[in-house]
Amino acid sequence: MSAATRIRKLGFRRWYERQLIEAHASLVTAFLTAIVIIVCLDQFHWREGGVKPLAMLVLMVAGIALCQKTLTAYFKTLFHAEHFASQAVCGKCKTYGALEVQSCAAPGTAERDDWLTVRCRKCGHGWTIAADAAKPALDKARL
Ligand SMILES: [Zn+2]
């Protein structure tokens, strides 16, 4: 489910809150994985016989992969949420996050999930939010 669809379903503030929770859960996972990697590195000795050195090595490699993946997820989720949050301020009354999704497309375009046409709940001003960071938001007043 795209961000536009989830914002439409949950509302911006609830969606943003969940994005932050999800991002920070990834950060905590990365931190705990880093601790596992450090402990395994400390306990790793080739001279010990048996399966233990191999198990430690497998655990370290898996930990490094998981740590890299969760750190990437943390930054991706956080930057994505901040990208939307930076466009969630009403241009007319400067209210933050009190928006109502009108459609998942820019005005005059086909329905897509990379744009959100929104309206301020407080004053009714409309604008678009670009889901893609490369596209600037469009102010409805300029259209
Ligand atoms: Zn407003």
Could you walk me through the main structural features you see in this protein, from its secondary elements to its overall organization?
Strand 2 (115-120) and strand 3 (126-130) form a beta hairpin. This protein folds into two domains: 3-85; 99-142, no CATH class. The protein has three helices and three strands, in the order H-H-H-E-E-E. It is elongated and about 70 Å long. The protein starts with a helix and ends in a 13-residue tail after the last strand. The protein has helices spanning 3-10, 12-43, 52-85, and strands spanning 99-103, 115-120, 126-130. 18% of the residues are buried. Zinc ion binds at residues 90, 92-93, 95, 120, 122-123, 125.
Number of strands: 3
Task: Report the helical percentage.
Answer: 40-55%
Number of domains: 2
In spatial order, strands of the major sheet run: 1-2-3
**Count the helices. How many?**
3
Main attributes?
143 residues; 3-stranded antiparallel beta sheet; elongated; binds zinc ion
Topology, element by element:
Elements: H1 3-10, H2 12-43, H3 52-85, E1 99-103, E2 115-120, E3 126-130
Antiparallel strand pairs: 1-2, 2-3
Helix pairs in contact: 1-2, 2-3
The chain binds zinc ion.
Zinc ion binds at residues 90, 92-93, 95, 120, 122-123, 125.
